[in-house]
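Friendly challenge for the regulars: who can give me the structure tokens for this chain first? No prize, just bragging rights.
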Amino acid sequence: MKKFLPVLAALALVPIGAEAHPHIFVETALKVIASESGQLQAVEVTWAYDEFYSLLIFENLDLDSDFDGELTAEELAKLKGFDMQWSDGFDGDTYLTRNGEALVLSDGEHLVTSVSQGRITTRHRRTLAQPVAADGVVFKAYDPTYYTAYTLNRGLEVTGGCTGEASPPDLNAAYDKVEELLYAMPTAQAELAYPEVGEAFADTVRLSCDA
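First reply, four minutes later:
Bragging rights claimed.
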């Protein structure tokens, strides 16, 4: 489950169970910011939420009273940063590694929030605690519990003379993993603690840079 503190009440409206994942669908874009020398400095992440989840947010924050799928300037101001108030321990569903080691990112910095045709889209920036060579960095966006499903289908941009190659997940292998883990635990336990399979469903971006 995405751990946004202001919207837990909205999420509570949706039943949670071993056979009901995922509940939230997010179309994602990624901008990788690297220096001309090929040092990875930051990433900007765009999240475009599905219509149903957007509706839950509208209802929870008392927005879009005329139900036209658009917000006034005042309503947009109220919505700004709604998904940046993360609970302790939440990694922002954004994971970067290099040579198998996790890279430390800052908390999300809100950049843009917009609403169009009933869907919320936000963009935020996260900087690296310590810039590293971008070449060989691997990016994945996923919710470990697979309550939220991310799809990298809104664009990939890489600066600093570097490029990124995106590859989709092996869905057959991912679903096999789900069945294997679910069958390995009692039904009651699976309903309370769905196995962490989100990474298996994640798109993978690999960065490479000119020497």
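The beta strands are 24-34, 39-49, 94-98, 101-102, 109-116, 119-133, 137-141, 148-158, 162-167, 204-209. Residues 5-209 form one domain. Your move, everyone else.
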